[in-house]
Structures are given as structure tokens and as C-alpha cells.
Amino acid sequence: MTDLTNKDISHIADLAKLNLNSHEIVKFKKQLSDIIGYVSHLKEVETSNVEPTSQTTNLKDVTRDDAANSQNSLTQDEALSGTEETHNGYFKVSAILEKDK
Question: Which domain of life is it from (predicted)?
């Protein structure tokens, strides 16, 4: 088992933007120490004759060509036909951001 300190747990919590109380620090200290201990057991596994691999299922990603379908697209005039105000071929809307005062 790896010996983590309360300071280690607080530092990790700060990195993760977590606010932990003292009870949670003790709880997570044990849990994280156990996890690191389990992972350290992997160092004992003989892997010198194991070929590296990134996946084991031989499944491939199924993809399609990214092509526009003009039959399912609106023209610019059709898209703008339902609005009352346009400017240079775009929808005109009220500002939602303000400059610093």
C-alpha cells in the first residue's frame, strides 16, 4: 500500500477543484492509497513476451463520407424567409453581450 499524506490528498483535491472536509480527506486517502497499491501489483506481472496492442476486438470504426446533401438544405433566402430583420444575408438579433463599462 502506498502511503499518501493528508497534504497529498489536499493537493490532488485542489488540482481537481474539490473542496474536501477532514472526514473526506481521510476517506479518500485510504481509497486512493488502495488504488495505487493495486496498480503497483501490475509491476509484478511478466510482460516481456507480450506483444503491445491498442485494442483486442479487431472492431473498426464505421464512418461515412461527410458530404452535403443539397436536397435536405435550405437556400439562404429560404432560411431567412421567417425572420423580420436581416443584415448582409444574416439574421439580425439583439446583442446578448455588453462591453465592459
Answer: Bacteria
Q: Where are the alpha helices (DSSP H) in 22-90?
A: 22-40, 76-80
Place of cell 502506498: 2
For Cα atoms 33, 36, 39, give the angle at the middle one, nearest 5 degrees.
150
What domain range is 22 assigned to? Answer: 6-44
**Whether the model pTM is above 0.70:** no
pLDDT in tens, 34-90: 999 999 888 899 989 988 888 888 888 888 888 888 888 888 999 999 898 999 999
Residue 25 included in any domain: yes
Residue 13 in domain = yes
The verdict on residue 52 lying in a domain is no
In this structure, is residue 30 part of a structural domain?
yes
- Rounded-to-integer distance, Cα 49 and Cα 65, Å: 40
For the chain, what is the domain count? 1
